[in-house]
TrEMBL record, chain A:
It comes from the Bacteria. This is Alpha-D-ribose 1-methylphosphonate 5-triphosphate synthase subunit PhnG. Pfam families: PhnG. It is an enzyme of class 2 (transferase). The lineage of its organism: Bacteria, Pseudomonadati, Pseudomonadota, Alphaproteobacteria, Rhodospirillales. Its EC number is 2.7.8.37. InterPro entries: Phosphonate_metab_PhnG (IPR009609). Coiled coil: none annotated. One of its GO terms (biological process) is organic phosphonate metabolic process. GO terms for molecular function: alpha-D-ribose 1-methylphosphonate 5-triphosphate synthase activity. Keywords: Transferase.
TrEMBL record, chain B:
It comes from Novispirillum itersonii (Aquaspirillum itersonii). It is an enzyme of class 2 (transferase). This is Alpha-D-ribose 1-methylphosphonate 5-triphosphate synthase subunit PhnI. The lineage of its organism: Bacteria, Pseudomonadati, Pseudomonadota, Alphaproteobacteria, Rhodospirillales. One of its GO terms (biological process) is organic phosphonate metabolic process. Keywords: Transferase. Its EC number is 2.7.8.37. GO terms for molecular function: alpha-D-ribose 1-methylphosphonate 5-triphosphate synthase activity.
């Protein structure tokens, strides 16, 4: 998009992917993933979970000038692990615990000792689950695809 | 003007208790849950979010329950809540080209890349009451998945654009678009402000105005170029990161109307555009919004302004349901002092009128006696 003129580094792309997936992962899945960690994460809040709004922008005609469509609820959080790594989250909706855990996992994913296993057990499965849901919706929509036939009019002539 | 009144606290409290009792209805009937509203009254939820100008399905469901199903009251509740939220971010513009489509139709081209996808629509139903739904436990037959996936659905307007037959719609993104929640609207308003106002406006108001343009008040010869419904990712660029991240996705309905334009001294004849976008599956609202958006572009396109739907101040300043229902309903508040002064005035006028009538009668009698 307009603000991303410079291409992202591989690290940035990887982080972009997991932050986006963590924002959409259901809370029970995140809770289970915390429980499954070898030891419970120790962290302090840089920013306690806070709910507010995001102003949703769109473009006239989809491609034209920007305008403000409305707002949506958004909860954000920032944590610092005892290891010093910091994690952030911005999650649509008002679930503070979701924002907290998403920030914790953002920090944990930056830990080379944990990132591979977390990617395998949490991030990639989240992506697969999301893709499967999207695929199922698209396949149902595709089943309603229609071919209209135009009939010649003017049979009275 | 209404004046402050005192007292009545007990009656007011009891009235609200009665409201709560009537909202609950027959206690023998199970209470409605928010999950039920959210999952089974989805179009009501969509409308409340769109006109409440806040995308949050849980809050919209709560508002509908609290308002006893009165959607205007629910919209008011959501708007009031919205004002309590600190604004944490501004999203990147939604990229509706990447919409994951559940419905996509065009009334202008029969065969178009991506095809016509009907999706979950009331169109082509017979509008006969379905008594099977009255019997609970009705489980719909699951929709089979189609083996052939949806192809990419390029914009219909982009197809016309390739031939140069429609006005281009691109932007430089220089200044931030105006925000009517922060700055009061000024007239004439630019298109960004108009679109924001229309997006929050009452569907019935826009539907009626759009309909009026079809019936000849501001002839705009519209075609539904494309209607698409589906979900789009929402991204923000947090300062802390400096690159975009997805915060979730929302469902939207988009309508692009294509309208005739005879051209002007500087512009060759071409098609013009009207645009509508709503939260959720607000298809009828998106269509109405697109018609009214186009009508309101009369000034910009050098068309004669002859019809209500082209009158920007009239259209924009009367479409907000919170404002219009607020001002209409404020008439219920005590206007006792106002009305007292009107009473005095009418009594005085009546006395004058009677005196004049009596004087005229006396004059007639005297002239007859002569």
């Amino acid at each position: 998009m307009s603000a991303t003129a410079t291409p992202l580094s591989a690290d940035q792309q990887a982080r972009q992917r997991w932050i986006g997936l963590l924002a959409e992962t259901p809370l029970p899945v995140l809770e289970a993933a915390v429980t499954a960690l070898p030891q419970p994460p120790r962290y302090t809040f840089l920013r306690t979970p806070e709910t507010g709004s995001a102003l949703v922008r769109a473009r006239s005609g989809g491609t034209g000038s920007r305008f403000n469509l409305g707002e949506m609820t958004l909860t954000r959080c920032a944590v610092r692990l005892d290891s010093g790594l910091t994690g952030f989250s911005w999650v649509a909706g008002r679930d503070r615990r979701h924002a907290e855990l998403a920030a914790v996992f953002d920090a944990l994913m930056q830990d080379p000792a944990l990132s591979d296993s977390l990617d395998r057990t949490l991030i990639t499965p989240a992506e697969q689950r999301r893709d499967a849901a999207r695929h199922s919706t698209a396949a149902k929509a595709a089943a309603t695809r229609v071919d209209f036939f135009t009939l010649v009019r003017g049979e009275n002539e | 003007m209404y004046v402050a009144v005192k007292g009545g606290e007990k009656a007011i409290d009891t009235a609200h208790q009665l409201l709560a009792e009537q909202r609950r209805g027959d206690a023998a009937v199970p209470e409605l849950t928010l999950e039920q509203i959210k999952n089974q009254m989805t179009l009501a939820v969509d409308r409340v979010m769109t006109e409440g100008s806040l995308y949050d399905r849980d809050l919209a469901a709560l508002a509908i329950k609290q308002a006893r199903g009165d959607l205007m009251e629910a919209i008011f509740l959501l708007r009031a809540y919205r004002t309590t939220l600190p604004r944490l971010a501004t999203t990147e513009p939604l990229d509706t080209d990447t919409m994951r489509i559940i419905r996509r139709i065009s009334a202008t081209f029969k065969d178009l890349p991506g095809g016509q996808v009907l999706g979950p629509t009331f169109d082509y139903t017979h509008r006969l009451l379905d008594f099977a739904l009255a019997a609970e436990g009705d489980t719909p037959v699951p929709v089979p998945a189609d083996a052939a996936p949806l192809e990419a659905c390029p914009r219909v307007t982009a197809l016309l654009n390739a031939e140069g037959l429609i006005e281009p719609d691109t932007a430089a993104d220089d200044a931030d678009p105006g925000d009517i929640t922060r700055e009061p609207p000024l007239y004439p308003a630019d298109r960004a402000v108009r679109l924001q106002t229309l997006a929050r406006a009452d569907e019935g108001w826009l539907l009626a105005l759009g309909y009026s343009t079809q019936r000849g008040y501001a002839k705009s010869h519209p075609f539904a170029g494309e209607i698409r419904i589906g979900s789009v990712d929402v991204e923000i660029i947090p300062e802390e990161l400096g690159f975009p991240v997805r915060i979730g996705s929302i469902e939207v309905a988009e309508c692009e109307m294509i309208n005739q334009f005879k051209g002007s001294k500087t512009t060759p004849p071409q098609f013009t555009r009207g645009y509508g976008l709503t939260f959720g599956h607000g298809e009828r609202k998106a269509m109405s919004m697109a018609l009214v958006d186009r009508a309101l572009r009369a000034r910009e396109l050098g068309e004669d302004i002859t019809a209500p739907a082209q009158d920007e101040e009239f259209v924009l300043s009367h479409g907000d349901t919170v404002e219009s229902s607020g001002f209409t309903q404020h008439l219920k508040l005590p206007h006792y002092v106002d009305f007292q002064s009107e009473l005095v005035a009418v009594r005085a006028l009546r006395a004058e009128y009677e005196a004049r009538r009596r004087a005229a009668q006396n004059g007639e009698q005297e002239s007859r006696n002569d």
